[in-house]
Specification:
The complex is a heterodimer of chains A (131) and B (156).
Chain A lengths: L1 H54 L6 E5 L2 E5 L1 H56 L1
Antiparallel strand pairs in A: 1-2
Helix pairs in contact in A: 1-2
Chain B lengths: L20 H44 L5 E5 L5 E5 L5 E7 L2 E6 H51 L1
Antiparallel strand pairs in B: 1-2, 3-4
Chain lengths: 131, 156
């Protein structure tokens, strides 16, 4: 009889641990989504800038705001800077995608494990009740 | 808790009528949240379009002013200093991410036009998505009410 109670207690402790893991996973997924949103917005903005730069003639003046200073920039340099930023952000987004997929898989397997644990606890408690 | 299969997949394969009241309620709340988000985005786009239109009309006004006319230049929200208008044929356009492009007055007006059109088309697309989502949310509300009436009538 007491071995059953301690078994239930062990299972419940295991359940608590798994639930904590699950909530940490969910927080990580939420953070991932936030960072992803930020990057997507930046990517969109940079692509707009690239489009504008492409429309310019060779001799148009481009300035970049560095702190409180507007600095004249070379059109080719501005183009390559914006392109490099777009590449970097796209790579970051791809990396985040892979991370979030991995996190979601872990989350699902944790949910399954928690479900199984709950079922085991329930079945033990019902047999205890009958006995 | 065990019978509710995770956030987005809840309404996936099961027709709405067969779901329990709790599942319907949770799904409806989710749909309402989404509708609110979309409405906020719509408001943002409207605000941005307004600001662009104000900028465009300011540009138009500026182009009418002769050079060397006197003007008051805002240094802060409450401090203006007198100045004279230099060449009004060239304007600096903020294109985002800290880049500014020098354009002629005509190109500046054209830039404003282009941006306004882009925002308007985004707005139209968003309105479509938002109204579809709202229909789904309303449908869920109707089914939820019907189910609850059913429950109340069977239990009484």
């Amino acid at each position: 009889m007491s071995s059953l109670t301690s078994a239930v207690r062990d299972l419940q402790r295991d359940l608590e641990n798994k639930t904590n893991d699950l909530s940490k996973l969910q927080k990580d997924i939420a953070k991932n989504h936030q960072v992803r949103k930020k990057y997507t917005v930046q990517l969109g903005e940079n692509e707009l800038v690239l489009k504008e730069l492409d429309l310019l003639n060779e001799d148009a003046n481009v300035y970049k705001l560095i702190g409180p200073v507007l600095v004249k920039q070379d059109l080719a340099e501005a183009n390559s800077n914006v392109r490099k930023r777009i590449e970097y952000i796209s790579a970051e987004l791809k990396r985040l995608d892979a991370t979030v997929q991995d996190l979601e898989e872990k989350q699902n397997s944790k949910k399954d494990a928690i479900l199984k644990l709950q079922q085991r606890i329930q079945s033990i408690q019902t047999t205890k009740g009958k006995a | 808790m065990a019978s509710y299969k995770g956030g987005g997949g809840g309404g996936g394969g099961i027709p709405l009528e067969r779901m329990s009241v709790e599942q319907l309620r949770a799904l409806k709340e989710q749909a309402d949240l989404e509708v609110n988000l979309l409405q906020d985005s719509l408001t943002n786009i409207r605000t941005a379009t307004n600001r662009l239109e104000i900028a465009s009309s300011a540009l138009n006004d500026l182009s009418l002013r002769p050079q060397a006319s006197k003007m008051l230049v805002p240094l802060t929200a409450s401090l203006y200093v007198p100045g004279t208008l230099d060449d009004s044929q060239k304007v600096l356009v903020d294109v985002g991410t800290g880049y500014f492009i020098e354009k002629t007055m005509a190109e500046g007006k054209d830039y404003c036009e282009r941006k306004i059109n882009l925002l308007k088309s985004n707005f139209d697309q968003l309105v479509e998505v938002a109204s579809k989502k709202k229909n789904v949310a309303d449908e869920m509300a109707v089914i939820l009410q019907a189910k609850m009436k059913q429950l109340a009538s069977t239990s009484s």
